[in-house]
Write a structure and sequence with these properties.
- By secondary structure, the protein is mostly helical.
- 89% of the residues lie in helices and 0% in strands.
């Protein structure tokens, strides 16, 4: 019962603390540090409860030892009184012999009483010894778990930070979807395409204007040739002939 009571209470407390910390944890490192502190405090509570149980067992053992010693002492007293009675009876002193025989009987009664008390305590001592052994084993198990937790602390923190970093990377990647026309990247690409189209349009307009200018120059050349020939006619020269 003591084992179940102590470790049952501590186990319930530990589970409640761990669940509460996990549910509300924002910083895994702080949660693990707090878990180590709480578990250490729970071990201290267990040690205190077990120490009390062990103390009660030692009292029982001491009382039992005293009862055994008392039974032996009363047995020796009964033996001494019986021998004294025999001596008086041998010498013919029946009165003193009877008195010491009565003292021997009283001593024997005390001896039997002490023996009964010792025997009554033995099953309790045996069961409590078993409980204490289990409590010690349980406490050692808790201490071992604490050391494992301390050893795993750095690994758990590193894993938690890695998972957190991976989550942030995944969130960042998922927020940029090049196939999504509403994404920032897609809108920027569309803007660049419009700029490219505008530049192409301006280039075509510029090219068209340049062709027109060259055409205009050709027309002007033809007019100049006409004027030249007209001037020749007016000066009396023969009409310009095409060479064969």
């Amino acid at each position: 019962m003591a084992k179940q009571s102590i470790f049952g209470r501590i186990s319930t407390l530990i589970r409640a603390n761990v669940n509460a910390m996990i549910d509300s944890a924002e910083d895994p490192q702080k949660m693990l540090d707090q878990l180590v502190r709480d578990y250490t405090n729970n071990i201290a509570d267990a040690e205190s409860a077990i120490a009390e149980t062990i103390g009660n067992l030692r009292l029982l053992e001491r009382d039992h030892s005293e009862d055994v010693q008392s039974a032996n002492e009363w047995g020796n007293k009964a033996l001494a009184a019986s021998k004294k009675a025999d001596e008086f009876r041998t010498s013919g002193n029946s009165s003193d012999a009877d008195k010491f025989d009565n003292l021997a009987k009283i001593a024997l009664q005390r001896q039997i009483s002490s023996e009964n008390e010792a025997k009554t305590a033995e099953p309790t001592i045996a069961s409590q010894t078993e409980v204490v052994d289990k409590l010690k084993d349980g406490l050692n198990g808790m201490k071992q778990k604490l050391e494992e937790l301390k050893a795993k602390r750095s690994e758990l923190i590193a894993r938690s930070k890695t998972a957190e970093a991976q989550t942030k990377v995944h969130d960042a990647v998922s927020s940029i979807n090049v196939l999504d026309p509403t994404s920032d990247l897609s809108r920027f690409e569309d803007k660049v395409r419009r700029q490219e189209a505008l530049a192409q349009g301006k280039a075509e307009i510029a090219a068209s204007s340049l062709d027109a200018q060259f055409n205009q120059l050709d027309d002007m050349g033809q007019l100049t040739e006409v004027e030249a020939r007209l001037a020749e006619l007016k000066s009396g020269k023969a009409p310009h002939a095409i060479e064969q």
